[in-house]
Amino acid sequence: MKLLIANGYLVDPTQGINTGRDLLIEDGRVLGVLERGQERPGGVEVLDATGLIVAPGFIDLHTHLREPGAEYKETIASGAAAAVAGGWASVCAMPNTDPVNDSPAVTRFVIEQAQRAQLANVFPIGSITKGCGGKELSEMGEMKNAGIVAVSDDGHPVPTAGMMRRAMEYARGFELTVVDHCQDVSLTAGGVMHEGRWSLILGLRGMPAAAEDVHVIRDCVLAKLTGASVHIAHVSTSGGLDAVRRAKEMGLPVTCEVAPHHWTLTDEALAEYDTNTKMSPPLRSQNHVNALLEGLRDGTVDAIATDHAPHHADEKNLEFDQAPFGITGLETAVGLAFDLVNQGIIDLEQLVRLCSTNPARIFSLKDRGTLAENAHADVTILDPACEWTFDAATSKSKSRNTPFHGRTMTGAAVATIVGGRVVYLNPNYTRITDAKHRQASAK
Amino acid sequence: MQFNRKHLLGIRELEPGEITHLLDTAETFRDISRREIKKVPALRGRTVINLFFESSTRTRTSFEIAAKRLSADAVNISVSTSSVSKGETLLDTARNLEAMAPDCIVVRHSMAGAPQHLARMGNAPIVNAGDGSHEHPTQALLDALTIREHKSRIEGLKVAIIGDVLHSRVARSNIHLLTKLGATVSVAGPGTLVPLEFGELVEQGLRVEKTIEDAIEGADVVMILRIQRERQDAAFFPSMREYAVHFGLKPKHLERAAEDAIVMHPGPINRGIEMASEIADGGRSLILDQVTNGVAVRMAVLYLLAGGGHAELDEKGH
Question: What is the pLDDT at residue B312?
């Protein structure tokens, strides 16, 4: 069966398309892009995307799905449901589960659970070291055969330069990008928030920006030494971003991502000790936020990633020091990314690059992040004019730990198509599929 | 100005007028403790729970005596923080206590923000009796009452705060209070315990000095902080001996202070470490006055939060 996404405004940087086009899909693949006025084939289902943006499916490089091991926080199915509701056709699942994804058995389990859910594509990330323990290399080759797309010890910064060098050299041979959570833990022991004026006011132990800076700089130096592809996860400091900028100027294979909460909120958001503002890296001060916005503007930032980190309400409803780090993000990221467009920091095309084109390139996801002929038919449909208010109670995630409950945003993903199937449709946009059973005869 | 807040969580959020009102109210209560019959019926039939998750002798006793002198029923609960991780959550503990209808819960906790957490999630008025390194509002109020008693003003005074500023909730509350009321504050101590950024704590009136001599220069009030070993997870200075030599207050330091300078310490003192015994026991030391004023301040706070009401106070002839 053919599917035509008609009357939309197609944005695909890989083909240089940024104009009104129809998209023809068949058997889970892109058949082609049709010009306006071009004769449409008969016998197709039609989705009506009038007034909407049609983009290659968004890919989140940084998602915690919690399964196996912490299914009370999130399952692969619930996380995938949240993903597609937020416009993410694909998510890359971090390995810090229980057990850790450090073996092909766990990798296969994640893939099988995702196939059962039939929602988002789930690409597992294997751990760099066994158990994310920072001491022995994981079986990267075996995991690659089982389906991992990158390696990372996210949440557990690889502690020594020696270990990281070994990991980069080994990963390079399997063409696996090494993703690092950059934090020198000797500088952040006991820390629960950004170190600065607000940590002094609140009497909470701080994590200095320098703890991230020194690790990003270390990894850039090691990227030069080893030639490995290095991706810096959730950059949150001006120093970290500067290091990436310099590495790129030197031609090193270094990329980076930024999470929406890091450019949207500052450490002042912690003033009431709300544990839904506690995450790692922490919310930073305004000067760091400004640096991130500049990095988004000048292209130093390659990707927007959610760092979706669900936790149960009981775990967050504790003293600030006791609560775990992390917030959910899959359903708010695209809305917050539209803030950047609405403020003129990036344009729509750059938004698509940050959420789709570049993520696919960074993890070498073949035939993704593009709507070129024969690409996977993953599509995110956006309405830049949609004004909406996020209600955590209606979240598809099993967890509710978000500082964005009640926030109004302008711009949203309203439908998500994965492998040619509509896996999410915003209830207010049923007009998209109303046309579905009509034969496309009109031009 | 009146004090119409439901909770007393910190000094930072208070208006200068509210602070002055608290101090004025405390002054009216000070006399009660000097009488033969040290009791008024202002909070008769009210219940105050002292919920202490961190050991304390002075503060807990002070709150208990304050409640009793107002005729409130005071209940003391000490919970060792080490058992909290195995047992019920802070919120569940507080909710169970709230189910017994207290009129006020006084909370001390080793973690910053714990009283804010209870105030947000619960129903009872909360008094912060010290939360981690965050605030200790009644300590700052009793310090201010003591200063006012001896200097008859706060505005325009120069106050030096010496020692472990980083971990000190006493320093934070005092800095907020003193600068709000127009004093200037200088802080000094080892670099590891007095971060340069500390000057940004408040918008104006606070200076971070390089040496304790610089901080004490011309000071009307010298406050010495306790070394908070329980909040230091690692060595912030090489040895107690070195600390005593370089950062302990000695008589020679006071020569730089104003002629009529007073010396304060929130207690308990590490004698001979942060302060020489001859100063602690000397004529300039107001350490015991602070303790006395603590009862008056806590009476005022409980009275205003646990529902005393002004009409009743006037009726009883204060």
Answer: 44
The answer to ipTM > 0.90 is yes
Q: Are A8 and A146 part of one and the same domain? A: no
Of B12, B112, B120, the CB nearest to A272: B120
Q: Which of A190, A203, A317 sits opposite B134 (nearest CB)?
A: A203
Main-chain phi, psi angles of B183, to 5 degrees: -85, 160
The number of C-beta contacts closer than 8 angstroms across A and B is 64
Which residues, 6 or more positions from B159, have their beta carbon under 8 angstroms from its beta carbon?
A: B147, B174, B178, B183, B184, B185, B186, B219, B220, B221, B222, B223
**Which residues in chain A have Cβ-Cβ distances shorter than 8 Å to B113?**
202-204, 273, 319-321
pLDDT, one tens digit per residue, over B253-263 is: 999 999 999 99
Residue numbers in B near A200 (CB within 8 A): 172, 195, 197-198, 200-201
CATH of the domain spanning B137-290, picked from 3.40.50.1370, 3.30.720.10, 3.30.450.20, 1.10.1140.10: 3.40.50.1370
Which pLDDT value is given to residue B296?
A: 97
Side-chain half-sphere exposure of B152, counting CA atoms within 13 A: 1
Tell me the pTM.
Answer: 0.94
Determine, yes or no, domain membership for A8: yes
pLDDT at residue B316 in the model? 42
The yes or no reply on domain B16-136+292-315 and CATH 3.40.50.1370 is yes
A307 given a catalytic annotation? yes
Distance in Å, alpha carbon of A316 to nearest chain B alpha carbon: 11
Round to whole Å and give the CA distance between A146 and A138.
13
Residues A229 and A125 in one domain: yes
Contact A201 B201 (CB under 8 A): yes
Q: Distance between CA A200 and CA B310 in Å, rounded?
A: 37
What pLDDT is stored for residue B180 in this prediction?
98
Token output for B264? 């304060």
User: Residue A317: its chain B contacts at CB < 8 A?
Assistant: 89, 91, 121
Q: What is the pLDDT of residue B86?
A: 61
Please pick, among A307, A321, A378, A383, the residue that the annotation labels catalytic: A307
Shared-domain flag, residues A341 and A317: yes
